[in-house]
Amino acid sequence: MSTSSDVLYKIQNILDKINDIDQDIRFMSFNDLNTYLSDPEFITLFQTQAPLTTNIANGIVMRLNDNISEVQNQAIKCLQPLMPCLSDVQLKSIIHKLSFPTKPKNGGEIDNSIYSTALKSIVANVSPSISNARIVTSSLLPVLQERVRNSVDDLDVLIALLTRFGASLTPDEVLTTERTLLQVLQEEKGLLQKRTITALGIISRYLESSQYLSLIQFIQSEFNMKKDDYNAVKNLSLLCGTVAKADTSKFKSFLPDLLPIIIDTLQMNLIGEEEDESPELLEIRDASLSTLEILSEFDHNSVEPFIKNLLDVCKTFLVYDPNFEDDEGDIFDSEGDVKMDDKNEDEDEDNDFDFGGDDDDEYDIDDAAFSDDDDQSWKMRRHAAVLASNIAQNLSGSLPLIYEEILKLVIVRVTKEREENVKVVNIEALDKLIGASDNDKYFYSTKVNYSHKRKSSDVSMFSFPDPKEVLNEVLPVVVKYIVSDINSKSTSVATKHAYISVLKTYINVVEGFPAEDLSKVVSTISELSKVPSSPFLKDLLELVSAVLKKHKVAILTPHIPILTQVIISGINDTYYRTSLEGLDTSRNLFPLFKENKELSGNDLKDVFINKISQSSFDIETRKKAIHALGSLIAVANLPVDDANQSANSICEQLTNELLRVDALQAIVTFVSVDESANSFSTDWFFETAKNIAAFLKQKSLTVRSETLNTLHALVKIISSRSGSQASNELDLIVQTLLGHVSGISSPPAAEVPLIGTIVQIFSETLGVVDNSISSQIIEFGMFVLTQDFATKIQSSILDLFDKITRLKMTSNIFDTLSKLPFTGDSLVPAAVAIAIVNCKLFEKVDILLQTITSGSIPTDTERALHILGNVGKRTPLSISLEGVYSNFESSVDNVRSAAALALGDIIIGNTDHYLPDLLQRLISSESSTNVYLYLFALRDIVYHLQKNRESHVSQALLDQVWDTLFSLKFKDDMSEEGEKTLVAECIGRLSIIDPEKYLPALQKNLNSPEASVRRSVVSGVKYTFGLSLDKYDRLLRPIVVDFLALMEDSNLGIRQVALSALTSAIHNKPLLLLPHLSRLLPLLYKETVVNESLIRVVQMGPFKHKVDDGLDLRKAAYESMFTLATTLPREWQLNLFKDDQFIDRILAGLDDDQDIKVLSCVTIARIISVDVRVLLSKRPSTGATTLEELIKKFTAILSVQLKDTALKQEVENQIELERNVIRASLQIEEAIKEATSVSDLEFSEWAEFMKSPGIVSASK
């Protein structure tokens, strides 16, 4: 290891050699110097040796005038590692020397370009501190402002300076630089103007509002004054696009003024005229169309008013080809309908697939006479295609209009475009246009009457057909042309990739092709897949997946062999990603095998086995192959020998620890299907069960869980097969499991599901295993029944006792169960009820009723109620329920709860008989306690009715329940919350049972004068948001906004419930809300504002205390805003975060109550992590940036000093708040670090904030 003195000595030697006469020595000296400077070990040494670094800097500057370019370049490379070692004085010095270089000693001219390159290196590599930024800008900016008029190199240095340190410029410096650049733009020509436009775009970001307005006004006035100056118009168009792209938030307010001007510069009226061929006009159009591409990417609301203008531009320039006369005709007739001629159908029939040209092509004299070298019209067509893509993506709310105007035109251009790169862009535009009609994209997701079945929307507002209808109309011609062109020898690889993407998108959007078109597509897929080392295979597999998913079996059946071979080709591909895609695609075949048993899966079986057995394949591929083979055995009608070969191949992987779990899961897949299980002998099941039972001793919980699941599946088959051998083998398996669970009393929570699986296995084997083993199983069941964890495996344990009692495995089961200890949540009453029902011990019901009626011992009464309820749930009873109702008056809470539960269960078993009486009692009850208990029972009944739609309950009875619920009146306060919640759940579930009837009824009740009714309505709808119900959602979608609009209700409680419902809807079903956000957001923002009228002063002894009755409302509103910021799809989030009011209200929350401050911290961090540019946007209310406002508010929170007498809760609240500020700050810091579209000092204030004492001390 070199010492400091050694390094210093070596560096001095190097500095001596950089002036050597030998150019190779000079070159190698700089190379060695770069090595030392780049070594982190020596950076401290260089930083402390100012004379040395000064000599190094001087040496580098001196050799920049070297007559050997390689030496100059090597010297510049040394500047990068040198920058961190320089002091402020040295940095100023080297910048000065590079800015004002001395003439070479040989008297030659100064090469300014090399010095400019060195300055750019300094600007790019100097440490991004505020002090360094000021040194660089103050040293360079005045010099550059003088020189940019004459030097592109200096202009490039200025661009680098503005890009990195533009945020450090003072307002005066920004203004002076802008004026200088505008002078250059007006006075100079050529490349200087182009680079000046780039610089102006960067500097525009830092202009103050008035200065930015002046720049926009300059652009507008120059457009008006110099409309005849082609060069000026071109540059102004480019400037407009550059400025717009630099800061969309600033520019969008000027979009209505400038976008029409840009369109006017295209001079579309001259097309076809002699002036249209002017090269200068083409340059203007090139510039203006590129600007329109940028402007069309602005948010929907800003650009939508100009959609017709933009579509006109697309229509004009998609076909702009003045140097080519098309004599081939159109694929659409004069009315826009598809012309289906067969003119060229046979032309490509015998075409072979090839990626080269046609060897037989001859030189065409006519082609030579009309060279395309000078034809620049293709640029216009390319811009128009990109513009069409942007319109399809960003303005798809007007999709019917877009389709009417340009869809068929884009299709035509795909068929006729001569330039390959333009053709690909047209195909991509077609892909975007088709994809915009996807059900999940903006147009259909925001249509309130959208139907998944009809594929229609509420387009009655348009005079145009539904987009999906249009796509189905043009489908034949699109498929015909794509298939024809994709088969052509001359079609490029890029074009074919684009075509495949279009076909995939098309199939997914229209959900299947007609048989004739599908045949063409499948044939093309087959041919493309046969190309040696096909570059299309992965894309083709994705297309095959779409074909298999979106078509019915009948139409697919003829094509299954072809598609199977394509999938096999993919699986066998050497590239593992393609192989994985092939395995994923193969799974889409399995539903077809299930529906059509005549399909053969032998070819797939062989390729799966090959993938599984070859250890040379990666683990992920083998895992997928195992699952695929298991599924194939389950659904394909494989011959017995083939099925056994496949199963054994999977079983062989049980010895591989990395594949064991997947092999176990695959076994479960195929043995769980009766048809496939019949292919295997009982001996195979015994042998497999015996082998996997050994895995129960492994430590891995996952392995043991999957082992038990597999044993359960195997044992289920073995138990169904009679014979003494089955009994004997099962005895061994069950004894192994009994030994595994012996001594278990308080298993870990993670082990409880395993015990549940073991209980299921025991249940399957009862009646087959030896009686002594059955006795052990029953004993184990009795033990588990009394354990605390039994409720977690309730279904398994009760199924076991159901089988015990049905098989009458023991004569005294009722007495045995009755003696077991009982607790409130015990399963013992359910087991006793099973014994009563299965053993026909209905005389026990009378004994239970006597116990319930007497009510002498509360625990006996509670136990009897639980048992009776479980009996009534399992079999209809016709008994008097007076004894049950009487226990509603019990003084013991557990007895009252048991009575309500029993009542609900009994009525579930005989609804028509008992439910009217319950409803009558509910209406007439004057006891709030009894009302709650009645509703508790009713909730269980309605839940059962909703889950079991086949229950034969009359509509009249359902209507009676509905009317009863709305007849209940509750106090308008925080009391009776339990009753209100139960009513809401019942209303919600009833509306799900019959949405066609009850949703309109709910909507009608929104106008009820009774606050309790309106509250019940919105609460009931809120309850449904947590459930997945396609039919209900489809009917709710158009009217959901009416329920949520109760945020405007005069009643505070209802407004709070409506806000809570909004939060639930955002979280669970955001697509329901998307069409209505424009109406809901203003209501939401309104609820975040402190309402002074809701603040009252309460006298508490000698003190006055302010009570804010609107606080809970604001909390609910901020919870909704948080959910919006975290739940919506990203594209919607980005649009939402452009809403100034949304950001303003979140920032305002940082000045509100403790809980709201916490919510605002979390929300703002989420917003910045999605779109960091929000920090740089200016707040309309204050004129400050979001960053400045955020730092101010975070600093205020961290600066709070509590008094020594502060309460413990106040201290804890402040600590929690500081913790959330720190957490949010760290998330914002991470987002800033990952930002690539901002300069280093754009967030300099934030960097200073993160170093401030407040945040440093709080972080500790």
Structure notes:
68% of the residues lie in helices and 1% in strands. Mean pLDDT is 87; it is low at 340-371 and 450-462. Among the domains are: 1-228, Leucine-rich Repeat Variant; 229-298, no CATH class; 300-325 and 376-447 and 464-511. It is mainly alpha-helical and 1260 residues long. Strands 1-2 form a two-stranded antiparallel ribbon. Helix 9 runs antiparallel to helix 10 and helix 38 packs parallel to helix 40 (724-741). Strand 1 and strand 2 (1103-1108) form a beta hairpin. The protein is globular, with a radius of gyration of 39 Å. The two termini are 38 Å apart.
Silhouette: globular
Distance between the first and last residues' Cα? 38 Å
CATH architecture of the domain at 1-228: Alpha Horseshoe
Give the C-level CATH assignment of the domain at 1-228.
Mainly Alpha
The CATH superfamily of the domain at 1-228 is identified as Leucine-rich Repeat Variant
> Can you count the helices?
68
Would you tell me which CATH topology of the domain at 1-228 applies?
Leucine-rich Repeat Variant
Strand content: under 5%
Task: Tell me roughly what share of residues is in helical segments.
Answer: 55-70%
Number of E-type strands? 2
Q: What integer is the average pLDDT? A: 87
Tell me the radius of gyration. Answer: 39 Å
Structural class: mainly alpha
Q: Strands of the largest sheet, in order across it?
A: 1-2
Low-confidence stretches: 340-371, 450-462
| Main sheet properties | 2 strands, antiparallel
